[in-house]
## 1
Amino acid sequence: MTLNNEKIELITDCTIDRKDGNIEFAEMKNSRFCAVVSECDFSGSEFHRTNLSGDYFESSDMSGAYFEEVNLSGAGFERSNISGAAFTDVNLRGAAFEGCDLSGVEITDCKLDGMTVNGYDSSELIEFYKNNHKDNGNMKKNARKAIIAGNWKMNKTRPEAKALLEELKPLVADVKSVEIVACVPFTNLETALSVTAGTNIKIGAENCHFEKSGAFTGEISADMLAEMGVEYVVLGHSERRQYFNETDETVNKRTKAALAAGLKPIVCVGELLWERECNITEEVIARQIKLDFFAISADDVKKCVIAYEPVWAIGTGKTATAEQAEEVCAFIRAQLAKLYSEDVAEAVTIQYGGSMNAKNAEELVSKTNVDGGLIGGASLKAEDFTVIIKAAENG
Ligand code: PGA
């Protein structure tokens, strides 16, 4: 295969091996490679910290190539053999693959939003990837958008809420790959919605009732929230279960009511310390998942977020280790696969919550099955919350 020389616009600082008139790329390091390339042999080549953004490769052989810290944002690949290639820490945002052989490709810790394969968006790639490479967790993780949600609990007056969100807005304005949510007290919803209008910060409530309307003094219905423009609602938080006698049955009813109103429920599950000590964490979680999502369709479950919040870690400063969080989040995913299907399990965002903070977030969200966090205390400080959001961007 030969490189189509006329079409190359610029190559700098590259190591190029010339053999028999063909150009074989042995190594491309710290390079800007700005080109339209056709019928080129890059098989087995290594690309390190190379800028290939916006470049276009057609009918080329890139099988077994290795890309590390490469910028491939907006790059195009057509009818090329990319089988067995490995992408590590690569920016593939907006890249497009058309008619390429991608079998056995390994994608680890890459940015994938806006990437397409044969016109399918990266969010639909779970299915594609399952067929091509069964056990690369990171690819699946990256296909799910991480959600970092603040749970303000019973904190902040309206002026305080306004001040916190005003401080947060510019700090996170450039964040695209993480969904940012602030779940605030009912009295702050209107303020929060107006302060964040037109920004990348979504607003959620901290609970809703399961009836549509009626004689339920002091309660707020899902329809009332949806009508305001609220997008998310926390349900079944352990504080609600503990102090307000909420049960899996009412959490299930609330989840159904929220879904019917078009809200995205963040359903909280988690074991008590005593239950962990008795070694029944899995039984407790399995029961909660089964009951909280009872008679909820697969399509509706995909609209839900599940927050794994070990009760002993909430507000105590005692965080679960990243391994414990990963273990239970993976267990929840396995339960969803059992109750619904692999597809549903891979689509659902599963957060960790419980003393997640600016220091421990990075390790927690780096785990394959931890798709973000539900943050209490640390969401009340704009700077700490921002650090957590940025950790999820990289996680
Ligand atoms: P915490 O709360 O981060 O303050 O532990 C988490 C939560 O209750 O969702």
Note: The two ends are 38 Å apart (CA to CA).
## 2
Amino acid sequence: MHDALRRVFGFGSFRPDQQESVAALLDGRDLLAVMPTGGGKSLCYQLPAVMLPGTALVISPLISLMKDQVDGARANGIRAACLNSALPTEERAAVMRSLLDGELELLYVAPERFALDHFRELLGRLEISMAVIDEAHCISEWGHDFRPDYLTLSSIREIRPEIPVAAFTATATDRVRQDIAARLGLRDPLLVRASFDRPNLSYEIREKEGGDSQLVSILKEFRGQAGIVYRTSRKGVNDTAAMLARKGFRALPYHAGLSDEERRRNQDAFIRDEAEVVVATVAFGMGIDKSNVRFVIHADLPRSIESYYQETGRAGRDGADARCVMLFSQGDIPKVRFLIDSMLDEQERARALAALSKVVAFASSTLCRRRMLLDHFGERYPKENCASCDVCLGTREVTECTTEAKMLLSAVIRTDSRFGSGHIVDILVGADTKKIREFGHDRLAVYGAGKERGRVYWRRLIDELVARKVIARSEGLYPALYPLDGALGILREGQRVEMVRIAEKRREKPASGKVSADGLPADRELFDRLRALRKRLADEQGVPPYVVFSDRTLHEMASRKPSTPEAMLDIPGVGQAKLTRYAESFLEELRGRS
Ligand code: ADP
Ligand code: MG
Ligand code: ZN
């Protein structure tokens, strides 16, 4: 296994969970693996596919993904091909021939093939090493992108009962996981659940200033590197993309309102490193395996923690440092509320509201971002300080607010936990409303006790205490605040509460990209030359640049400066096939002018 890992992929070690996944498949055992984006799922089946006799069948939902995977596998010298409706007849015939001749190690197909009788009949006759279902959550109606044609995949068990079936997904909920296992008829599968932590991503939330200059100055830190700017509305996308283009960035828009042709063109330009920034709505991202996305900026509030995780997850798939920046403004909340309030379906509205309040709590919290994200997925982050989020790096001002927290809890408790944030804040600031008079809340000791602080302060404190699980909001359309166990710690045990002001401060760490994956300062000028060479070779071969080598591999080359083929082979990501194909050009570049 380790030999093949080195020879084919050029990696010296497995990532956590890859090794047991590979071993299970080599043993002929079914597998259900949940790993985050960038976790290295492809290697889990590509490696055994190379080692086992026969062809591994890989079912993948999108043609663009398939093509990317095939390009990537071929670049590593794996005999891979795909069959789908987009393929010209001639090419399809050629793929069929090599398939029938047993020449393929990997065959990618779209799920709808399984509905075709002749394809199923063909599967019965070939030597198949295993069946792999990528993006397996598509088979579950509980998942976020259910695809009815995935249901036909259950027939693989009847056609080839003896081969192992492996399902891969980045969607972690138990319900989806059980659904996948049941629908595919997995038999005593090995269950692998990797951590959802993405250690190479840094998270930071900045107070949104409004206006263009903030975004422009952030993007300047990433000059020449690829990234995504997410915005909520199509208009926002168009405006921001146009503004950035005027300022000299190679920025392109992407949203569902553009023609198919324009979307495809913009996406391709991004994948081929020809546009550095895509400004997009959430419509962008699925079906993109580009591994050298170095930053993701949320210029508006994400709609949920899940989507924030998924969208930021598109950065740094190659394992090299990447940054996630969210621009947050309390002022954006009413805009989103307005959109939510206009939803017709009551359940949907309640769900969207709950998701929004979690995002707000996340953004305004003083707890480690990473810890909160993982907590959301039911995972405990073991370290006290992650050293790569704005909270842990201490770029924020902390203020003590224990007294205020006590006042707030008192207001909640004295009103029997029956009222929502708005009314509680009214009590604290001593507002004169009909509701206050009707309930006699102007007679409470806390009435008006917090009037030196504004409403915004109190709302932030509420979000903070919700995030810390001191209080919670009840379900439903008119959520009331109620105390949780954490409240006792503050009221009785003298626990302190601190709140953070989101401060705009310079990071001390240099922007990612100037630092190699292992933290060594890389030669930036050399890196840029290697990158230009990568782009040239990629264009010649009609593949995306990251298929030639990942950013991480280029960083390693730039810092270690190998001078012989043997030294080149030691660079992570340089396997036998890539050595043969590319080493000479890169060695020349490294030698020639460095
Ligand atoms: P996923 O499908 O889980 O999102 P991929 O299979 O696309 O992730 O892999 C993401 C990146 O991680 C790729 O650039 C891949 O080359 C790299 N990678 C995978 N396994 C390893 C490993 N053991 N060591 C170093 N890099 C790896
Ligand atoms: Mg994948
Ligand atoms: Zn942290």
Note: The first helix runs from residue 2 to 9.
